[in-house]
Structures are given as C-alpha cells and as structure tokens.
Amino acid sequence: MWPFICQFIEKLFRETIEPAVRGANNHLSTFSFTKIDIGHQPLRINGVKVYTENVDKRQIILDLQISFVGNCEIDLEIKRYFCRAGVKSIQIHGTMRVILEPLIGDMPLIGALSLFFLRKPLLEINWTGLTNLLDVPGLNGLSDTIILDIISNYLVLPNRITVPLVSEVQIAQLRFPIPKGVLRIHFIEAQDLEGKDTYLKGIVKGKSDPYGIIRVGNQIFQSKVIKENLNPKWNEVYEALVYEHPGQELEIELFDEDPDKDDFLGSLMIDLIEVEKERLLDEWFTLDEVSKGKLHLKLEWLTLMPTAENLDKVLTSIRADKDQANDGLSSALLILYLDSARNLPVSYILMDTL
C-alpha cells in the first residue's frame, strides 16, 4: 500500500496544506511545494488496539502504534522572496486513531475513514535551508521548535483527515463531530514539590517557581507561575472539549520557571473514561517521573444536552463559581457549520513587473 499512501500524501500536501499556508500570511502567498517524495521506507505499525466497549455499533475504532523513519525529499519555495528550503528526513512516532464509520449494508461496508492522533506525536524533521525560510518576513519570530509544534498540533484532535468511501456519507458530520462532552479542570494546588533552585553554586537548595501545562488533545492551557513555593495554590479553572473517548487522556506537566531552561517537576495522565464514569473527581494525585510531589485536581465531566430546558439551572450553578475562571464558566456550546458561499466579489491581484 505504501506507494498509494505516498500518492495520497502528495495530494494532501498540494490540495490542503499548500493553500492553507498561502492563506495564513500575506508574505506566504507565493508558497509552493516544488517536489514531494516521501521515500521508499514504509510506515511501520507496531501494535493495534480495537475497542469493543463504549463504542457505537455503527463504527469500528482502532488505535495504531505507528513509527515512521524515512529519508524523504520535500522541496518548497517562496517565489516572492527567492527563498528555497526543504526536508531531508522525517521521524514520527505516536498513537494514531482510525475510525471506520458509518458501517453500511452494501460494499465496501464502510462509509468513510477518519484519521488523527489522540495526542501530540513525537516528531523530528531534518531541514535544509531552514535559516533562509526563517528570514522571510512574518516567519522571523518562529523557530524550529515552534514549527514542529504547529505541524504536530495540526495532526491532533480535533483536527482530522476524513476520507469518504461512498458518495452518500455525511462528510461534514464526520469531519466536525459534536463533542462527546466538556471537561472542566479545577487546577487547585500542589504539595511537597522538589526544590530546583539552588544557591552558592548548588550547595544550598532553595525552592521552585512552579507552573503547570495542561493538555487535552491539541488544547493547551498554562497556569500562572507561583514564585518560590513548594506548596503552590493556583485555584484556576480550564474547560476543554472532549471529542474522543475511550483512549483520550488529560495530560499535565509541572515545571519550575527559570531564566534559561525550565526544570521538570512531575507529570500526570488521567484516563477520561474514568472521569466520565465518576462525573466528578476531587482528589490528590501522586506525580509521576519524580521522587515526590502531589497535585490536587477537581475534574467535572459535563454532558451536552440537545435542548435548553436546564439552562436556567446551569446558569444559577455557574454564577456561584463565576470568579474561578478568568473568562467565566461555560453554560452552553455554540457549534457553527460554515456550509458554502455564493456570488463572492472577484479579487484582482496586481503583479509587479520584474
């Protein structure tokens, strides 16, 4: 299948990614791929998990542990600035979810195929001419790391690639499904964190300036920094849309803010299936990958209702907690589908003569 997958990837680059890059910034309006060769080394699938519980009977959910290490040749140029750059090799490792839905009673039995990563995959890119690329106006504030994050997040939920296999399938509903629920995260406090700051060349151990990074899919939140405190109290609230479960997790990392490189203070991963079952979790969690430290979280699973019958009750409830979040707590979700447009004005682009 690899040669045909490569054809699909090339089509994706030219028909989806290239127009998206051109539209992202006026300075990139002449961006184009001049060569796309993904290479002969195929993607490896190191493991497959199939879900049989908590899934719709008209769908099949697969999680694929994928690994790709390939020598490729992808060349791009921005004609306006005579800039050329490229990619010599790519590595990508992570869990890709494949959803086969809807299942139908006629061949090919599957209406469409959806692909995405549940969380940010490990991505490494070997660039050529990256310095030239970052000299382009509008890109000079970027770096290699920021570019990798942008690419990685494009692959992660709620972004997805949807391939229809029959003409009758409702592609919009598959590409932009209604979220399964909303996760309200009360990021409260921590205890007994490691002291990372040192004085007198490391002889005297000090405290830390802790903050947290919270992730659900490609939704990322960062808490405020609490200065010189090993038992910080944040008392902040975040709300994240949950599009997929089982399999999706809440990821939290704590760091000590430093002038150069921030020190790691521990991490936590919580399966959202457990939160949905309990509806409300208010617990102290032991931090992983460190010798000590605990984190106090309150997690609420909010189910989306199709009507506004309980809206007054919800509004009354969140008014009592209105000071917990900077921009207030949510009471409802607005979903807007941009379907089509007609009779748009013609835009003319004047080209300078060289």
TrEMBL record:
One Pfam family named in its UniProt record: SMP_LBD
Gene symbol of the encoding locus: Esyt2_1
Organism field: Nycticryphes semicollaris
Signal peptide feature range: none
Keywords: Calcium, Cell membrane, Endoplasmic reticulum, Lipid transport, Lipid-binding, Membrane, Metal-binding, Repeat, Transmembrane, Transmembrane helix, Transport
Membrane topology: Peripheral membrane protein; Multi-pass membrane protein
Localization terms from the record: Cell membrane; Endoplasmic reticulum membrane
A molecular function GO annotation: calcium ion binding
PANTHER family for this protein: EXTENDED SYNAPTOTAGMIN-2, EXTENDED SYNAPTOTAGMIN-LIKE PROTEIN 2, ISOFORM C
C2 domain boundaries: 165-285
Alphabetical list of InterPro entries matching this protein: C2_dom, C2_domain_sf, Ext_Synaptotagmin_C2A, Extended_Synaptotagmin, SMP_LBD, Synaptotagmin_SMP
UniProt-listed SUPFAM superfamilies: C2 domain (Calcium/lipid-binding domain, CaLB)
Protein family: Belongs to the extended synaptotagmin family.
Top-level taxon of the source organism: Eukaryota
Gene Ontology BP, a term: endoplasmic reticulum-plasma membrane tethering
Record domain SMP-LTD: where: 1-166
GO cellular component: endoplasmic reticulum membrane; plasma membrane
The protein's name: ESYT2 protein
